[in-house]
Amino acid sequence: MVVLLAVLVVVGGFAVSRMVGSSGGVQVGGRQAGAEYEARDLPRLAEISTWEDADVEAITSRNPFTFGAPPTPTRNLTPPPTRVPIPTRPPQPTPTPRLYMGEDGRVKGPPPAFERKYLGYLGPSYLKVAAFRRQGAEPSTTVVDVGAEGEILDDIFIIREIGHESVLIGFVGYDSSEDTRVPLAED
After folding, report:
1. What are the CA-CA distances from residue 102 to residues 105, 108, 109, 113 (Å)?
2. Can you list the positions of beta strands (E) in 8-108?
3. In this predicted model, what pLDDT tens digit does every residue of 86-123 receive, in sequence order?
4. What torsion, rounded to 10 degrees, do the Cα atoms 7, 8, 12, 15 define?
5. What is the pLDDT of residue 56?
6. Is the per-residue pLDDT at 63 higher than 60?
7. I need a surface site. Which of 21, 73, 106, 158 has the fewest CB within 10 A?
């Protein structure tokens, strides 16, 4: 509040000093009281009847109420973007063939593929029997195999664990680390 009051006093003092002027007389409307002015070399307004009679130069000949010609385009001075180099892929190492462990700890070839589909299980939780579907000898036939936990199918596959959504299958002559989980069939 004090700052605003100080600003008002400074502005008021400046306005009064302008009105008083340098000669000490009071100025009214930008001229000193009592001073006379006369116009020199100005044509009288009554003598100018039309704009053609007036000695006035036009600044522009363009009609301000219409659009003019479009400006000339300037050349684009920005350099074209540089192409980003395509990154090179680092060489991929050759994968080492997977080694399969036998029950005796020696390396063996891969176990045979389990080509049956798990259909689900039957029986109570303490005596689950898994059901599998596979292609028969003829293309139009389907064979359903069943087995409990611990049983061996085709002298190759061991049913290790039966679950709600999958079954764990082991292989005869292979370590239990080589077991594979077969999910429940969707079809």
Report:
1. 5, 6, 9, 16
2. 27-28, 31-32, 100-101, 107-108
3. 888 888 888 887 888 888 878 888 888 999 999 999 99
4. 60
5. 59
6. yes
7. 73
DSSP 178: G
Residue 114, both tokens = 């389990």
Per-residue confidence (pLDDT) for residue 184, from 0 to 100: 93
Residue among 169, 152, 147 nearest 160 (CA): 169
Q: How far apart are CA 163 and CA 182, in angstroms?
A: 10
Give dist(CA 115, CA 120) in Å, integer: 15
Residues with Cβ within 8 Å of 180's Cβ and at least 6 positions away in sequence, in order, are 114, 168, 169
Instruction: Select from 177, 169, 174 the least CA-distant residue to 102.
Output: 174
Residue for token pair 């006379």: 36
Burial class (CB in 10 A: 0-12, 13-18, 19+), 121: buried
- Alpha-helix residue ranges (DSSP H) falling in the chain: 2-20
Six-digit token pair at 168? 């764990």
Cα(first)–Cα(last) distance of the chain, in Å? 86
For the full predicted model, state whether its pTM sits above 0.85: no
